[in-house]
User: What shape does this take?
Amino acid sequence: MKGIEWIKITTNMCEDETIRLIDSMEYRDAAIYLWLRLLLQAGKVNDNGLIYLKKDVPYTKQMLSILFNRPIDIIEKVLEILESFKMIKIYENNIIKICNWEKHQNIEGMKRVREGTRERVKNFREKKKENEHSRKKLPEKEFDENEPLENKFLEKENINNNTLINVVNDSINTNEINKNKNCNAHVTLQKEKREEDIKKKNIDIKEREEELDAQALKLMKDLEKINININGLTLRWAQDMLAKHKEKHVKMAMGKAIERNKLDTNYINGILKNWLKEGYPKTYEEIEFGNCEVGNLSAIKEKPNLRFINFEAREYDYKDLEKKLLGW
Assistant: This one.
């Protein structure tokens, strides 16, 4: 059934006795809103005030709750109110009818819409039937010896032309169908790819969050082991810092704060903020020692406080040195 884009509502609707009585009830706002929505829904169906999804599929209360965006208990209560005032009628098959629909609406206009729809459907079906009939192969005419040979050739040529036209039309329709299929397949592949990318992104985000949680917990446990209490240090703060800075840099900043006896997260935030602007300091493993020998470099790693990287001990003759010192 073809719906319409308008219905009639009188300007003095709120002065009606029934509406005024409903307006004094507990569910007045919901009742008046749902009454208008039911009128609009009946206009969409355009079947003499009946409201249904399809001819044999009525709207359930759950469906109306979703369509009208109201709780189901409100839907049930308002339907009872409207039915008690005989504004609507609910049949045994749950189809709803607006009472006195003919009284308020332009039935003639709605009827013309329905008849126009029927006429368009009828014309479409007849045209389709004619096209299918014209595509069928024409029967061959009986051979007539007295008929001029020229007419026979012309008739044969017309039949061939009609056949060719039908073949071309079928080919065009087939190409259009294949084109639509390819287009739909391409859209489906794009949709699947987008869904896969979103799923992968969500997995990466979840793994990153789990990694940050583990690092934050480890950071707090390490502080508990050395019995250090930093003001403002919470699991959330640690997660935020680890999300912005690498774990090693957060540890270095906390070490600086502990070394200077500035046990406060604000001080650590300032350190990390400066490093983010000016550049992070290098860890011991990242420092380049130039052309130091392997032996010296390994010794430095074992003793990080050793400053003289290329220092080599001199070899002395201790007996000769002793004589010189004693003046012998």
Observations:
- The longest strand covers residues 88-90.
